[in-house]
Design a protein that fits this description.
With 346 residues, the protein is an all-alpha fold. Helices cover 81% and strands 0% of the residues. It is built from 16 helices and no strands. Helix 2 packs antiparallel against helix 3, helix 5 runs antiparallel to helix 6 and helix 7 runs antiparallel to helix 8. InterPro entries: Bac_ResReg_Asp_Phosphatase, TPR-like_helical_dom_sf.
């Protein structure tokens, strides 16, 4: 039996905020609380309010403001000797680093966060930081290295009845199965995640699960109409909560679905929309993947092969530099799909 989803990153006076609270509302409320806590000279409450400010800004795509806020939270917590708050601040900083494509920094910050969470006796901070390490490794393509950690975190979340973390773990494991071609297993896991998220009123987790289901329905079944319907439902949830990053990834998936259906002009337009959204929020991984889709769509619409190969070579270098092994393999797959080679770019 799972409890209702909650947001442990909203702490202290902000603990009444819901996991489904609009991020603009969270930012406004947390900023007000941060000002009040500073005036009162309450370092513990200042650190917790700054954490909420950081997380709201990160999810809204305001990366510079998020960077300033998590560092404020950490410095304030350290000055007060508040070890659990230090752990949460580093978790936020590590998550932001991953979002910005700085994977080595993400690993470093999240390892520190996990250690401080354990030392400070904050089981949730420790678990979220381990989850962050697992997700960072998964995004990099280190499935063997982090697969067991995903399984351990899933088992722990199930035992605690913690819906939000259970949904996260199921979606991460599902994504690894999907990327490895095990579509039926991936579908089953995404479906379970969607069910748990819906029952626990975790709209963010539900939107990501619907996106995963849409991907499987498109690539496995070729059911474009159903995939687009699932993405439409997910988009509604993203817009309701102002989830900028999740919405951009939703649009990129919509473009993927259109591309697979041979609707290349529509796919190109949607890839370009997602590209603009990722650039606006400074999210290089999403930007690179959207660019890859745009290049492929333009190639299908008659773009010059040499220019296409040159763009793919450039993207390959970018993804190599970010350490994204699975995404880098997608460039090689695109070359084969389009009948090109890197030599054509020289």
């Amino acid at each position: 039996m799972f409890s209702k989803a909650f947001a442990p990153e909203y702490q202290g006076a902000l603990s009444a905020l819901s996991v489904n609270s609009s991020l603009t509302d969270v930012l406004e409320t947390a900023t007000g609380q941060l000002i009040a806590a500073r005036r009162a000279g309450d370092a513990h409450e200042t650190a917790r309010a700054a954490l909420a400010v950081a997380e709201a800004n990160r999810r809204l795509g305001h990366v510079e403001a998020a960077d300033l806020a998590w560092k404020t939270s950490y410095r304030t917590a350290r000055s007060a000797g508040d070890v659990p708050a230090m752990a949460w601040a580093l978790w936020s900083g590590g998550t932001l680093a991953r979002q910005r494509g700085f994977l080595a920094l993400a690993f470093r910050l999240l390892r520190y966060a996990a250690d401080l969470g354990k030392r400070g006796g904050d089981v949730v901070a420790h678990g979220y930081s381990l989850a962050g390490l697992a997700e960072t490794g998964r995004i990099r393509g280190d499935y063997e290295a982090v697969g067991a950690l995903h399984d351990e975190l899933l088992a722990a979340a199930r035992e605690r009845g913690e819906a939000r973390h259970t949904v996260w773990a199921l979606e991460g494991i599902a994504q690894m199965h999907r990327n490895s071609g095990r579509y039926d297993t991936a579908y089953r896991l995404f479906e379970e995640a969607a069910g748990i998220a819906a029952a626990a009123d975790d709209r963010r987790g539900h939107a990501w699960a619907l996106r995963g289901l849409a991907d499987i329905v498109s690539v496995r079944d070729g059911d474009t109409a159903r995939a687009l319907e699932l993405l439409g439902r997910a988009e509604a949830g993203c817009r309701e909560m102002n989830l900028s990053s999740a919405l951009a990834y939703n649009h990129k998936m919509r473009a993927n679905v259109l591309y697979r259906a041979g609707r290349y002009a529509e796919a190109l337009e949607t890839y370009e929309q997602a590209l603009g959204e990722f650039r606006a929020m400074g999210e290089p991984r999403g930007e690179a993947l959207s660019r890859l889709g745009s290049v492929k769509a333009r190639a299908r619409l008659g773009a010059d092969p040499e220019r296409t190969a040159a763009e793919l070579a450039e993207l390959g270098g970018i993804l190599d530099g970010m350490g994204l092994r699975h995404a880098r393999a997608m460039v090689d797959k695109a070359l084969a799909e389009l009948g090109l080679s890197f030599e054509e770019s020289r």
